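so i finally got all the pieces together for this one. its two components total, 231 residues if u count the protein bits. some of the lines might not be protein, just check the labels. i wanna see the whole assembly predicted at once instead of chain by chain like last time, that was a mess tbh
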Amino acid sequence: GAVVSQHPSRVICKSGTSVKIECRSLDFQATTMFWYRQFPKQSLMLMATSNEGSKATYEQGVEKDKFLINHASLTLSTLTVTSAHPEDSSFYICSATLGRSNEKLFFGSGTQLSVL
Amino acid sequence: AQKITQTQPGMFVQEKEAVTLDCTYDTSDPSYGLFWYKQPSSGEMIFLIYQGSYDQQNATEGRYSLNFQKARKSANLVISASQLGDSAMYFCAMRPRFGNEKLTFGTGTRLTIIP
């Protein structure tokens, strides 16, 4: 079946540094990918919708300059947390849709970010 | 706007028993899809089952079945013959049937299977 690969699975960084998270669709082309954030014991909250070849669409309250999204190809979207602070520590997870089928939505394995 | 409600924050079930996880929803979209995902402690989101709003039959996938009651706007997940490996967080979600729209998630239910 279709697979979405997310890397790294875990990252620890110092406050003030930037962290890049990659989301790849391994065996299909994904024109749209979604980035979610999840705090402990809470549900997934959509941060932004990443569209190949165009600017991402951010949800209300998400700082676009803080969370940079690049969707340069049909198989890769990246989320960069710029100048990370401890409050950015969270679980980040991406998802991608296979073709135009509504039910074919796959998730990456997630990235646990810890900012010291 | 879409809304998903999961009223059971946690459930404890004896191994081998069946369990029903509740999910109700609200939407103004005439056509939509309903999903259930399992999230173990590792964090990955595992797709379990999908139900289209115009599907004639309730969806089934192995031990998972979806009790879809459109008039009541409910999409409960039924797990038969529960196993210890079923212990995890379970999320109900929905999105419009057409268009590449985001998933709206419920708050989740933590299921613990007791040996």
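The mean pLDDT of chain A is 90.
Chain A touches chain B at residues 31-32, 34, 42-44, 46, 49, 91, 93, 95, 97, 100, 102-103, 105-110, 112 (CB under 8 Å).
anyway lmk what u think
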